[in-house]
Write a structure and sequence with these properties.
about 300 residues, 3 domains, five-stranded mixed β-sheet, two-stranded antiparallel ribbon
Length: about 300
């Protein structure tokens, strides 16, 4: 299935899902691939910079550590891959080796693909020039994405349900189950899950989501929702969302080891434009400097 969307938007949204809730990566590894990661283990973000020399850039999309911060028991590298790029495949082997050297514990590479052909290509073993070192990533693509048509299941696994909308959203029951589930999700989080699905879906599925949304009562922040519901948000709720988005930007930058000057910190924390904060939040998931946040603002 092909997706008619801006590649960077899909990439950044998928990446943001794992940064917002790192446990989601562990759930996929346990449930889909049988990786031995304890249910009770804490999961948190770590810097993904694996540069091995000043002229060479090696930046993983998301790095998640599992277990005690001072003695992690597992490392997870999450990479979003939309196209066939051989250099990216080779890079995964370097990421895994670098993180293993840092942690001295098991490391798993989880690749998220929105296209079946890319998923099949990424799932092949990656050979290296080191004796006996061959990496086989865990690849989660359309073939493994469940068709979620039950609202209860969608409510229990909202991130997975958003991926189901991305892959299978043209099936009416998938979009319907997702939207029904959101009516019973914490109102503080429902808009975020809706936003994930809206950004990941094809244009046709977006229209379906928007039509269903007309009958809902909770506020959301897709471009469509801002036009129809933005003026009716209560001031308190808007302030809470503004603070949440600003904190998310700062958290992402800190996790990536990006220096934040006092001026930049003030610019982020005093901004009250939800749309602009959403843009900064997406960019902060992959930014290597704060200048990258404000491009074309």
């Amino acid at each position: 299935m092909a997706f008619r969307d801006v590649p960077s938007l899909i990439h950044d949204t998928l990446n943001l899902m794992f940064r917002d809730r790192p446990q989601f990566a562990l759930e996929i590894l346990r449930d889909q691939f049988g990786v031995d990661v304890p249910n009770s283990a804490s999961a948190y973000l770590a810097p993904g910079d694996f540069n091995d020399r000043p002229s060479r850039d090696s930046q993983a999309d998301t790095v998640i550590l599992v277990g005690p911060p001072r003695d992690p028991t597992h490392g997870v590298i999450v990479e979003i891959q939309q196209e066939v790029e051989e250099s990216k495949r080779r890079g995964l082997a370097r990421y895994a080796a670098a993180l293993w050297l840092q942690l001295d514990c098991p490391v798993t590479v989880l690749v998220i693909c929105n296209k079946a052909k890319v998923a099949r290509w990424m799932a092949r073993p990656i050979t290296t020039s080191l004796d006996a070192y061959e990496l086989t990533p865990k690849v989660f693509g359309p073939d493994l994405t469940p068709v979620i048509t039950d609202a209860k299941q969608a409510r229990e696994h909202p991130e997975l349900a958003a991926l189901s909308v991305m892959v299978h959203g043209e099936q009416p029951l998938v979009a319907s189950a997702f939207m029904t589930a959101l009516e019973n999700v914490d109102p503080e989080h429902a808009p975020q899950y809706y936003e994930y699905a809206h950004r990941l879906a094809s244009e046709a599925v977006r229209r379906t989501l928007e039509e269903i949304m007309k009958d809902t009562t909770w506020p959301v922040y897709s471009p469509f929702a801002k036009e129809h519901y933005g003026k009716g948000l209560e001031a308190g709720k808007k302030e809470a969302r503004v603070e949440e988005r600003g904190n998310a930007v700062l958290t992402n930058l800190k996790a990536r080891g990006v220096h934040v000057s006092d001026d930049v910190h003030e610019r982020i924390t005093t901004c009250t434009d939800l749309s602009l904060l959403s843009t900064w939040m997406l960019r902060s998931a992959t930014a290597t400097t704060t200048d990258e946040l404000f491009t074309d603002d």
